[in-house]
């Protein structure tokens, strides 16, 4: 038995936290460790088994304080469990809309954004493209600790640009034009997504391109349109967003530059 493979009897599901890309996400008790954990389950008879296994492979090899840590898995029988650390405040998307989230100042949000850039810089060093960076895939813990989660679409790319298959589901509102239109994903397309994530944060959870469908979003981007500066967003943070949204991918900053940037 691999060290992270555990018998499912060791886990007691307590509370459903939501629906993930593959199935349900639960808060659970790991009885032998007396520890609360998060468990992602794979829906019965789901065809996404290959993707689920890829997510586990990605998680197993990544160790950084700003990335969600894999603790164990139960892959024998169904449903399959992926066991990760539990982040008590849930997803950044839901946290931004909570009473506590609405009280956050720009300084708090900048602190959180810097942590996300730090986690992404670690992936950048390893040439790993996340491909689904958004507030829904950032988890929040105590003291505004933020960690990058959901490596479901992550690919380790040997070249600087990874071309996805045509039938890949793409979250268009968060995706760089070259990735959404030509399926060319790179670390720089993740940087574009980071800009949209900053927009979500600074607008306190507003949907990017609200009221537009995916085709309209693509048409807007092709014409050079960019999301406007959110109310109460400092101009220097909006400038960072605009840098992330440079039409030419090579002109976008690196995650290392974003993490070490003086955001004040």
TrEMBL record:
One Pfam family hit: PK_Tyr_Ser-Thr
EC number: 2.7.10.2
Gene3D superfamilies reported in the protein's UniProt record: Transferase(Phosphotransferase) domain 1
Key word Transferase present: yes
Binding site for ATP: 40
Enzyme class: transferase
Membrane spanning residue stretches: none
Record's keyword terms, sorted: ATP-binding, Kinase, Lipoprotein, Myristate, Nucleotide-binding, SH2 domain, Transferase, Tyrosine-protein kinase
Domain Protein kinase positions: 11-264
InterPro entries in the record: Kinase-like_dom_sf (IPR011009), Non-receptor_tyrosine_kinases (IPR050198), Prot_kinase_dom (IPR000719), Protein_kinase_ATP_BS (IPR017441), Ser-Thr/Tyr_kinase_cat_dom (IPR001245), Tyr_kinase_AS (IPR008266), Tyr_kinase_cat_dom (IPR020635)
GO MF annotation list: ATP binding; non-membrane spanning protein tyrosine kinase activity
Name of the protein in its database record: non-specific protein-tyrosine kinase
Catalytic activity: L-tyrosyl-[protein] + ATP = O-phospho-L-tyrosyl-[protein] + ADP + H(+)
Keyword Transferase set for record: yes
């Amino acid at each position: 038995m691999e060290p992270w493979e555990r018998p499912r009897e060791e886990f007691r599901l307590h509370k459903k936290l939501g629906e993930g890309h593959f199935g349900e996400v639960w808060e659970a008790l790991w009885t032998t460790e007396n520890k609360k954990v998060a468990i992602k389950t794979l829906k019965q008879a789901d065809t996404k088994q290959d993707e689920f296994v890829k997510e586990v492979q990605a998680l197993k090899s990544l160790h950084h304080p700003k990335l969600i840590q894999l603790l164990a898995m139960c892959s024998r029988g169904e449903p399959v469990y992926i066991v990760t650390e539990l982040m008590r405040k849930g997803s950044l998307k839901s946290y931004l809309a909570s009473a506590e989230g609405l009280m956050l100042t720009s300084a708090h949000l900048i602190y959180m954004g810097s942590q996300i850039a730090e986690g992404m810089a670690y992936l950048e060093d390893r040439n790993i493209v996340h491909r689904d960076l958004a507030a829904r895939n950032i988890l929040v813990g105590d003291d505004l600790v933020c960690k990058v989660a959901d490596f479901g679409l992550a690919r380790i790319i040997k070249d600087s640009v990874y071309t996805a298959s045509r039938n890949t589901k793409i979250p268009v509102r968060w995706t760089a034009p070259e990735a959404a239109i030509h399926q060319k994903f790179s670390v720089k397309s993740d940087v574009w997504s980071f800009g949209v994530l900053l927009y979500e944060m600074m607008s306190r959870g507003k949907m990017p391109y609200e009221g537009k469908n995916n085709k309209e979003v693509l048409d807007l981007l092709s014409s050079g349109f960019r999301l406007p500066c959110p109310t109460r967003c400092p101009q220097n943070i909006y400038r960072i967003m605009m840098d992330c949204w440079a039409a030419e991918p090579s002109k976008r900053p690196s995650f290392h530059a974003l993490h070490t940037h003086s955001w004040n």
